[in-house]
Design the sequence.
């Protein structure tokens, strides 16, 4: 694989573009504990980028840095060619970065449809007054957004549960609704924190298919954390490997698979 | 129809109307509790403050007059104008929004992620602060509030019931107005929260802060919004109670009557606040009417609290509250 500023051609002939997001020398500390130490990597336009590593490697912390939930003590985050200052998570979301959570953060009391509609909140332009009296712009806008949301519902095959309160859904479907809500924001970059954790084989296959379809049909760039190595190697174009808060590998699935340091981290290494 | 039954019907109707007045106060509690998990002890004082400010604007009172007079040896009291009710109400609503912004900026913002008890204590502090501020700004005397709402026995109801049952019901006009206003308020709040973008954001924040952040909702904006709405609901409650019994500082104590209403209806349910208020209103009137004479009367003072206690034992989440389920 050849890489340059303008991108590369991934498996299957997909064109991957230039750098969309770049993490430069990120260090994140909680008190005296270093969760992330001096990590740099980039995410390119249109690719599926995986972050893997053993438990406690700092993967979720990294995702939280990207989505603004944590602010790193050192290092720079660049997005779309601009350096991003310290931002609140809701500001990051408005930049076009959507995410899902490891332990699902949905609005349990709201219906599936309403949950997905919240994904479009930042795109609704009508003001407070118009909304309050439900006049003019507000009504038309609601209808337009509803149509977009219905498309996503079709796409993820969750028509049957549209009106169901999320709290009543089984785990696998909740994960799918969370993905739908993130997609509703039409993100430039989609962050998935263990999208397949706790799923059975069939559910994993469905989710993998959705992730590939999202990338393919909407051209969404995806960064994901996943434990299932089979899934990661099949899905992703490039992989970052973390261990104890450091980056120990970065490259295509094949390159990473054959990296001795990565093998040691996963299988353990004999000390003598 | 026997007289006893007709009388009981009249008592029930009066109870329903009195219940609406409780519901109006309880509504403000529910709004804030739902959106931020804060039990806002200051809700009653907000109603008092709103009523004081409304009277002040209407009568063209100079705010802080006593203070200014004492410091500068002046003799100010009024600007000498009399504002129309609607203008004064709109101005007061603006003051309540401003108050919400100030509360968010100086109190809530600094208490993010604190346990609920801390926030509860903060609202107790706010309650006393606002009570003092109301006193300094507008004076401590009992004021008459008149925004043109009809008061007194409704002759229409009396003559209509008289022609049907041969017995005229005594219903206060103000209670009828309060009922209509409360119904409109609940209807608009429900529509707002179900079908608008901000309502959806509000419910989202009430449900899960982290998820709300991840879809781009600013928590601080939502808090200002919710406290503004609660302030305006307090204004409505203040107008009703102020018209009924004059604007006086004991008005802040009506918040106490809202507590049993909340325990009945559930802290998180807007319909619950309404139904809870109605049950308490009817319950205490009927209890006073039937059992009261046997045990020497004055049951209205404690009936609501005893009923709330019974609910706490058998149904702690209230009638409409979210069921407490722990998944293990």
Sequence:
């Amino acid at each position: 694989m050849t890489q340059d500023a303008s991108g590369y051609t991934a498996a299957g002939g997909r064109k991957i573009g230039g750098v969309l997001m770049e993490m430069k020398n990120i260090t994140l500390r909680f008190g005296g504990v270093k969760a992330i130490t001096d990590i740099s990597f980039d995410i390119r336009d249109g690719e599926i980028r995986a972050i893997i590593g053993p438990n406690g490697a700092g993967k979720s912390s990294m995702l939280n840095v990207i989505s603004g939930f944590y602010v790193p003590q050192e290092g720079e985050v660049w997005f779309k060619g601009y350096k991003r200052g310290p931002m609140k998570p809701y500001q990051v979301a408005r930049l076009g970065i959507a995410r899902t959570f490891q332990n699902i953060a949905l609005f349990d009391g709201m219906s599936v449809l309403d949950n997905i509609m919240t994904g479009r909140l930042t795109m609704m332009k009508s003001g407070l007054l118009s909304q309050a009296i439900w006049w003019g712009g507000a009504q038309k806008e609601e209808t337009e957004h509803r149509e977009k949301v219905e498309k996503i519902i079709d796409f993820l095959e969750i028509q049957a549960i549209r009106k169901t309160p999320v709290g009543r859904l089984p785990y696998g479907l909740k994960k799918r609704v969370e993905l739908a809500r993130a997609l509703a924001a039409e993100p430039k970059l989609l962050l998935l924190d263990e999208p397949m954790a706790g799923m059975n084989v069939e559910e994993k296959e469905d989710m993998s298919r959705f992730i590939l379809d999202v990338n393919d049909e909407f051209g969404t760039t995806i960064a994901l954390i996943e434990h299932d190595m089979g899934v990661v190697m099949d899905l992703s174009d490039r992989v970052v490997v973390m261990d104890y808060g450091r980056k120990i590998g970065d490259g295509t699935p094949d390159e990473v698979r054959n990296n001795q340091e990565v093998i040691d981290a996963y299988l353990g290494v004999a000390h003598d | 129809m026997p007289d006893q039954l007709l009388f009981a019907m009249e008592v029930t109707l009066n109870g329903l109307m009195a219940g609406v007045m409780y519901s109006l106060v309880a509504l403000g509690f529910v709004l804030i509790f739902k959106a931020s998990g804060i039990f806002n002890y200051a809700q009653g004082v907000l109603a008092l403050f709103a009523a004081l400010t409304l009277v002040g604007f209407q009568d063209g009172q100079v705010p802080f007059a006593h203070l200014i007079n004492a410091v500068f040896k002046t003799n100010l009291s009024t600007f000498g104008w009399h504002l129309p009710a609607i203008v004064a109400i709109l101005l007061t609503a603006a003051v309540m929004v401003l108050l919400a912004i100030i509360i968010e900026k100086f109190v809530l913002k600094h208490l993010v992620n604190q346990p609920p008890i801390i926030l509860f204590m903060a609202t107790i502090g706010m309650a006393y602060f606002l009570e003092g501020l109301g006193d300094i700004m507008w004076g401590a005397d009992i004021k008459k509030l008149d925004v043109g709402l009809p008061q007194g026995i409704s002759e229409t109801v009396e003559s209509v019931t008289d022609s049907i049952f041969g017995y005229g019901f005594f219903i206060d006009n103000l209670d009828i107005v309060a009922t209509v206003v409360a119904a409109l308020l609940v209807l608009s709040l429900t529509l707002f929260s179900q079908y608008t973008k901000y309502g959806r954001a509000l419910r989202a924040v009430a449900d899960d802060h982290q998820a709300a952040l991840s879809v781009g909702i600013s928590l601080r904006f939502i808090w200002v919004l919710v406290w503004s709405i609660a302030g305006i609901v307090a204004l409505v409650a203040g107008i009703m109670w102020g018209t009924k019994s004059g604007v006086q500082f004991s008005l802040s104590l009506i918040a106490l009557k809202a507590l049993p209403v909340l325990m009945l209806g559930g802290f998180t349910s807007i319909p619950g606040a309404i139904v809870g208020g109605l049950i308490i209103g009817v319950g205490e009137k009927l209890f006073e009417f039937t059992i009261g004479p046997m045990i020497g009367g004055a049951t209205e003072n404690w009936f609501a609290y005893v009923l709330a206690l019974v609910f706490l034992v058998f149904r702690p989440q209230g009638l409409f509250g979210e069921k407490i389920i722990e998944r293990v």
